[in-house]
Design brief:
It contains 13 helices and 7 strands. Strands 3-2-1-4-5-7-6 form a 7-stranded mixed sheet, sandwiched between helices. Helix 2 links the parallel strand 1 and strand 2. Helix 7 packs across helix 8, helix 7 crosses helix 10 and helix 11 runs parallel beside helix 12. The longest helix is centred in the last third of the chain and has 16 residues. The chain binds S-adenosylmethionine. The site of S-adenosylmethionine has 22 residues, from helix 2 and strand 2.
Length: 309
């Protein structure tokens, strides 16, 4: 079975400040690298609630941790975080929430999941491959302008318009259903080459983020994570894309400031007070980690602590 090397593992453990009896949520379980390390730091009374929207991640987790009584594995999107953990009564109870965004190595490496321009597979790209629209379905119907906007905004593809035009022309002749087909079309449309980078990298990234609604679920999860944290609880978020990191940074900034309407006033109502305290600034992978795991390249970790109400 394909493996995933957890990114910034020591830094996440330090950020979470794991307490032996604490309750933690790993909202992006993946292959359980971070969950395993949190469990190792917990005593018998500690708990991890782990979530993943990918059925294969949850199945692999059950196989790996089946008999672990301190772990609850939940399948679903963290966009519905509060609903997913509500039955466990965790409002204001968690000592930490971890979000390790993006895709896992098994998702990228398994050709049949359709994330990779390096290997031929069905053009799927859904993390939850049992619901929603695949990349092929989206590309079959989206307008040229919509495709160009997605590639430009989410992939920062300079040649977004050309690529979109090429896709629309090609799909009029035959449906685009394979990753290799899309990769070849993009390579034809992009006139320049970035050293060490496949010309379809940006297009694949953009379509993946779009198909999985990754920025929308990130916006949805941050306030929910905040409400689930106990005072002193830690929020740790690892982003791999500048738009994700910007959303996390702005959320933390806003919550550290409180409502600006009350700035400088002697009495601030509880709902207008700051809810978070920033812990350090952003952390990136060390040269040693990058040498071991090149996929840590664009990872950025931000940590904040929940303040008492
Ligand atoms: C980078 S991997 C996490 C790896 C994990 N920390 C580990 O060490 O094995 C991201 C995982 O989060 C999952 N994921 C991404 N977005 C999600 C969402 N909105 N809801 C639930 N899981 C999500 C993906 O399916 C993937 O398995």
């Amino acid at each position: 079975m394909a493996e995933h090397t957890p990114v910034l593992l020591d830094e996440v453990l330090a950020g979470l400040e794991v307490r032996p009896d604490g309750r933690y949520c790993d909202a992006t379980f993946g292959r359980g690298g971070h969950t395993a390390a949190i469990l190792a730091a917990l005593g018998p009374a500690g708990r991890v609630y782990a979530i993943d929207r990918d059925p294969e991640a949850v199945a692999a987790g059950r196989a790996r941790f089946g008999a672990e009584p301190r772990l609850t594995l939940i399948r679903g999107s963290f966009g519905r975080l509060e609903e997913l953990v509500r039955t466990a009564g965790l409002e204001g109870q968690l000592q930490g929430v971890l979000l390790d965004l993006g895709v896992s190595s098994p998702q990228l490496d398994e050709a049949r999941r359709g994330f990779s321009f390096m290997q031929d597979g069905p053009l799927d790209m859904r993390m939850d491959n049992e619901s929603g629209q695949s990349a092929a379905q989206w590309l079959a119907k989206a307008g040229e302008r919509e495709i160009a906007d997605v590639l430009h905004h989410l992939g920062e593809e300079r040649f977004a318009r050309r690529v979109a035009r090429r896709i629309v022309a090609a799909r009029a002749l035959e449906p685009i259903t394979r990753t290799s087909q899309l990769a070849a079309l993009v390579a034809e449309a992009v006139p320049t080459r970035e050293p060490g980078k496949h010309p379809a990298t940006r297009t694949f990234q953009a379509i993946r983020i779009h198909v999985n609604g990754e920025l929308d679920v990130l916006d949805a999860v941050l306030p929910q994570a905040l409400r689930l944290l106990a005072p002193g609880g830690r929020l740790c978020v690892i982003s791999f894309h500048s738009l994700e990191d910007r959303a996390v940074k702005r959320f933390i900034q806003r919550e550290c400031q409180g409502d600006p309407v009350y700035a400088g006033l002697p009495v601030v109502p509880p709902e207008a007070r700051p809810t978070l305290r920033r812990i350090g600034s952003k952390t990136v992978a060390s040269p040693a980690e990058l040498a071991r795991n090149p996929r840590a390249r664009s990872a950025v970790l931000r940590v904040a602590e929940r303040l008492a109400a």
